[in-house]
Amino acid sequence: MAATNELIRLEPVFHEMIWGGRRLADTFGYEIPDGPIGECWAISAHPHGDCRVTGGRFDGMLLSELWEEHRDEVFPGATGDRFPLLIKIIDAASDLSIQVHPDDAYAAEHENGSLGKRECWYILDCDEGATIIVGQNARSREEFAQMVEEGRWSELLHEVPIRRGDFFQIDAGTVHAIKGGTLILEVQQSSDITYRVYDYDRPGKDGKPRELHLAQSLDVIDYGAAAPASGAVSAPEVDGVTVLEANGIYTVERVRVDGAAVLANENPFLCLSVIDGSGTVAGQTVAKGAHLIVPAVLREVELAGEMELIASHV
C-alpha cells in the first residue's frame, strides 16, 4: 500500500513505581490508575509497555504491530528489528535508585539481545532547590567498589542543581538518579535494562529490598566520563527550534510555536510530545500531554498555536 500521511496518535501506558506520585494526572490531565504512578510510557513499542494507536486507519493497533506489519506505509526507510525509541514522562515524588545502564554490546551479550540504554532528560518541572545525580567521582572499578562498600555516597556521587528547562544527556555507563520533586520527559533507546547500584535500603512493593546489580554496574560504568556542571541549555534557538542533543542514536529538539511554524521532517518518522500549550499539528488539534508520530511522507509539518513540544527522531 502507499505510504500514509496520517498522524499516529498514541495512548500512553502507565507504570506504578514505589517512588511515583500523582503529577501525571494533576499536570497533564491523564486518567491514571490509583497508587504511586511514576512513569507514562508515551511513545513505546517495548514489550513492557506497548502503546496503542488511537483514532485513524490503524486505530487499536499496538505500535509494535504497526512497526512489523505496516513499516513501508508508516515508516518507509526505517531499519531495525524493533521501534528504536521510547519516550516517557517520569514523575519522581521521591528519589529513584542510584543506577547505570549498559551499552548495546554489553546488553546484547548479557541481556538476551536487548538494546543498551542511552537516554536524555528534559526537566519539565521541579521543586525549588531540587537536584539530580549525573556522574560519579571514582576513577577506577576498585575505587568505586571500595566507596560503595564504605557507604561514602556523598563523596562518590555527583549531584547537580536543576531548574525547569534544563537538559541532560545520560550516556550508557553514566551513574545517575532522578531525585524527588522532579517531573521530566525522557527520550531513550527502546530498552528496559537498569542496573541498580544502591536503593537506600528501602523496601519494594513486597516489603523486601529491591535487587541490586553491583557486579554488572562495575562492569559497565564509564570511569573516565566527565560529569556536567549544570543542565543549562546553551544551544541557540533558530526559528523556534533548539537542538538539545544529536548523537548516533537520536536527535532531540525543543520546538516553541508562537503563531505558526513549519517543522522539517527528513526522517523515517518524527516523535512529537506536546509539553505545554495547545494548537494544531498538520491541521489536527493537540494539547499539552498529547504524543504522536509524524510519518515520513509529511516532509513539512505545519504547526500553529501557542505551544512547546519535544521532537525526537533517529
Give the class from helix and strand content and strand pairing.
mainly beta
Query: What oligomeric state is this?
Result: single chain
- Overall pLDDT confidence: 97
Please indicate the percent range of residues in DSSP E strands (runs of 2 or more): 35-45%
Annotation field: number of helices: 7
Shape: globular
List unreliable stretches of 5+ residues.
Answer: none
Order of helices and strands: EEHEEEEHHEEHEEHHEEEEEHEEEEEEE
Largest sheet: 9 strands, antiparallel
Number of strands: 22
Radius of gyration: 19 Å
User: What percent of residues adopt helix (DSSP H or I)?
Assistant: 10-25%
Distance between the termini: 24 Å
3D architecture notes:
This protein has 314 residues and is mostly beta strands. Helices cover 14% and strands 42% of the residues. The chain contains 7 helices and 22 strands. It has helices at 23-28, 63-69, 71-74, 104-110, 141-149, 153-156, 214-220; strands spanning 8-11, 13-21, 37-43, 45-46, 49-50, 52-53, 85-92, 98-100, 119-126, 131-136, 157-161, 167-170, 176-177, 182-189, 195-198, 237-238, 241-246, 251-264, 269-281, 284-287, 291-295, 300-313.
Structural features:
314 residues, mainly beta, nine-stranded antiparallel sheet, six-stranded antiparallel sheet, globular
Q: Topology of this structure?
A:
Blueprint: E1 8-11, E2 13-21, H1 23-28, E3 37-43, E4 45-46, E5 49-50, E6 52-53, H2 63-69, H3 71-74, E7 85-92, E8 98-100, H4 104-110, E9 119-126, E10 131-136, H5 141-149, H6 153-156, E11 157-161, E12 167-170, E13 176-177, E14 182-189, E15 195-198, H7 214-220, E16 237-238, E17 241-246, E18 251-264, E19 269-281, E20 284-287, E21 291-295, E22 300-313
Antiparallel strand pairs: 1-6, 1-21, 2-3, 3-7, 4-5, 7-14, 8-15, 9-12, 9-14, 10-11, 10-13, 16-17, 17-18, 18-22, 19-20, 19-21, 19-22
